[in-house]
Amino acid sequence: MSDDIRLDGRTALVTGAGRGLGAAMALALVRAGAEVTIVDINEQAVREQERAATALQPASAVRGLVGDLRDRDFCRAAVLASGGPDILVNNAALLPSFAHPGRLLEGGRFNRFWDLDDSVVEAVLDVNFLAADRMVRLSAPRMIEKGWGRIVNVGTRLTTMHNPGASPYGPSKAALEMASEIWVKDLAGTGVTVNLLSPGAAADTPGFATDAEKANRSRDPKFHMMAPRKMAAPIVWLASDRSNGFNGQAIEADGWDETRPPDEEALRIARPLGFEFRTGSGIR
To answer: Is the pLDDT of residue 281 over 50?
Structure first.
């Protein structure tokens, strides 16, 4: 890894970092030299990632925090414990399986929106959008003071957002992407960038699907599950000085070619945040 993509001296906070995509991104930031705070509600998963990080970089400063991001006091404590992160990765999310268990089994279906209990809808919006919004509001002032910061929100594809049965997961991710576009504008000229990184495909991560559901969908030739490690290269690039000036963009990790120069690859697959119609192309 070249010197200008190292993250030595940078602090990072990654939510939902106990497993799957979050763990892959947190460990990638550790490898690059960042001091990383790992946040997750699952204590066992947090301890496992602390051990994994120490094995990668014995001298690395890795802090694991266990708590619920729906608790505003815990969010505030996490930001303070990280020292006010230079890099904030909002990854924590309740996946579609939370509202639609068994949806990928043969004969399974997504619940219709009117079948969902208030508690399910509120939990998804609280974790997927409100907690991310809170973490950004708590972290941004310190980044602005330093004149440098990276906010990376983990999103999803438009097709996933508006599929039948995608509520409330899709709306929560749509809110996060639109908020990201607004944050870009509010942070203009501060040195703080806001970008979105999504898997770009179904992710082979705990909670997405049971083993039975994966086996059922594996018979579908269109079904593809992305390995969480694919998030590593783009998150390190987005967190580095190499991405200076790269702002208000969305990247799908599944399309990232690690054999190509990362600067060129980011520009090749990026698209602007938001949901504008584009002449001749319709909706993205």
So the answer is: no
CATH number at residue 259: 3.40.50.720
Domain that holds residue 247: 3-272
Does the pLDDT of residue 81 top 80, yes or no? yes
Length in residues, the chain: 284
Given a cut of 70, whether residue 282 has pLDDT beyond it is no
Domain count, the chain: 1
Tens-digit pLDDT profile for residues 88-136: 999 999 988 877 776 554 666 778 889 989 999 999 999 999 999 999 9
- Residue 277, domain member (yes or no): no
Distance between CA atoms of 204 and 214, rounded to whole angstroms?
9
Phi first, then psi: give them for residue 269, nearest 5 degrees.
-105, -5
**What integer pLDDT is reported at residue 2 of this predicted model?**
44
Rg of the chain taking only CA atoms, in angstroms:
18
The answer to whether the predicted template modeling score (pTM) of the entire model surpasses 0.85 is yes
Which of 148, 146, 166, 165 lies closest to 156 in space, CA to CA? Answer: 166
Q: How far is CA 198 from CA 72, 83, 176, in A?
A: 25, 26, 12
Peptide bond into 261 cis (omega under 30): no
Q: Which residues pair with 226 in a beta bridge?
A: 203
Cα 171 from Cα 124, distance rounded (Å): 10
- What's the mean pLDDT when you consider all of the chain? 87
Q: Is residue 137 part of a domain?
A: yes
Whether 65 is covered by a domain: the verdict is: yes
